[in-house]
């Protein structure tokens, strides 16, 4: 997905909001100038997650005292979801279409995103989770997904955030049950970035106990194929089908001609408009859909 003016404007606005409470006006001015320098000198083919990664690093260097304690946040959400694991698994197994419900739950899990959202409300998330089956899957895209899963041999599942990764695990379990011929690999981030899922999070939810897990070799949101490791790039090339979670994976992978199905929650106005959905509604989207050009 190419960079666009609205995303740049949104990014600048977020930086202004983040530093507004700081008292050192000279430091704030210098910081905003550096932000504009990064954006102004970027290439058109750069992705927004790649630029955000550079700006997040600048923020942490300039205002280290203001960086949120993401390690503790991630631990909290992983523990919260693990405590619910057995009950959610039972709920999935009781559904007439267990795979569809697991997909709906995994989409809701994409709400836990401290990068896209100004505030993550745990109670709002739990409410979305309880009503996950009300957000019905697009029947044509779901049918196409099942057909492609039946025909595939290798599936790459690209995770997104902490907490959410537990729901990814439960979806992968359903994929393994319904498509036992599939060889499934899960991919996480290669280093700490906001509350994105890494190997530590995969270990927290015991994802390695059910499938092979690799990291993408870089600490940034999304999966930018120009910057990931050779191992991660090869895993993408070898996959017959890819399930990619979240907006950042959409922003970095869409338009590359890959066999990707995207599972995400619309968390910003641009994505809501792109898919003609209200905010906090789920998306199941395939790369070949006409909407790619929007």
Automatic annotation (TrEMBL):
Taxonomic superkingdom: Bacteria
Gene3D superfamilies, per database record: Uncharacterised protein PF01937, DUF89, domain 2 (1.10.285.20), Uncharacterised protein PF01937, DUF89, domain 3 (3.40.50.10880)
Cross-referenced InterPro entries: ARMT-1-like_metal-bd_sf, ARMT1-like_metal-bd, PH1575-like
Pfam families xref list: ARMT1-like_dom
Record-annotated Damage-control phosphatase ARMT1-like metal-binding domain positions: 4-276
Protein name, as recorded: Damage-control phosphatase ARMT1-like metal-binding domain-containing protein
